[in-house]
Amino acid sequence: MEPAASRRKVLFVEDEAPIRANYERYFAAHYQMAFAASGSEALRRLESFEPDVLVLDMRLPDTDGVALLQEIRASHPSLPVIVTTAYVSMEPLMTMLDLGHSGYLVKPFNMDDLAARIDAVR
């Protein structure tokens, strides 16, 4: 296992507790992690945690992922964002709005696929 200081910092924005628990269990040895269950919490964690990569669920209880991503892009234009959603139809909207993301995964997805995308972005 790499020392914590050299591991990538990943902020997971996901409102479903079982999915957050899966992320934590699966990635504990690989990344420094922080979690947010809502858009407002994500914005607070973004400033205090300063992630290298953001994994963003598109459906959140207090905002939709598109609005949140627009807000994040305004303050963190180069932050790599990997989008997760249960809806295949989000891709055209993301492209149309030119929200620049570093990957897109439709739930349910394989954790190895997510790890590969996190490791691939710089």
How are the secondary structure elements laid out?
Layout: E1 9-13, H1 17-27, E2 32-36, H2 39-49, E3 53-57, H3 65-75, E4 81-85, H4 90-96, E5 103-106, H5 111-120
Parallel strand pairs: 1-2, 1-3, 3-4, 4-5
Structure description:
The chain is α/β, with parallel strands linked by helices. The chain is 41% helix and 20% strand. The chain has a single domain, classed as Response regulator (Rossmann fold). Strands 2-1-3-4-5 form a 5-stranded parallel sheet, with helices on both faces. Strand 4, helix 4 and strand 5 form a beta-alpha-beta unit. The longest helix has 11 residues. It is globular and about 35 Å long. The protein starts with 8 loop residues before the first strand and ends with a helix.
